[in-house]
User: Which sequence fits this backbone?
């Protein structure tokens, strides 16, 4: 990805990290331009949101405030990492899961 692509797709990349609806908005608005930087962050954000909902469902079954707060902090740090990457115009994969999300959702953006 070049610097021009990052500059053009920065706005939609930031929107992708703001709620699951932001992912959908960024995805459909990017269908016309097909910006690779935006699609990178859409895949990262979609993977994070799906993991958040799946793990949130599992964690909600436990009655432990330590587990709940750990869950929130873990995902807050990952979302913040992705969001700061989008703001700075960098395509940094999210630690541990980013490459997996890129492979899993590779059909998004083709």
Assistant:
């Amino acid at each position: 990805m070049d610097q021009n692509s990052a500059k053009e797709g920065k706005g939609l990349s930031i929107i992708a990290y703001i709620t699951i609806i932001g992912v959908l908005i960024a995805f459909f608005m990017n269908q016309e331009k097909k910006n690779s930087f935006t699609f990178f962050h859409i895949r990262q954000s979609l993977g994070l949101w799906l993991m958040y909902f799946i793990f949130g469902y599992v964690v909600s079954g436990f009655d432990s405030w330590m587990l709940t707060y750990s869950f929130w902090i873990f995902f807050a740090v990952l979302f913040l990492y992705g969001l700061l990457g989008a703001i700075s115009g960098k395509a940094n994969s999210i630690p541990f899961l980013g490459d997996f999300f890129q492979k899993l959702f590779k059909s998004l953006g083709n």
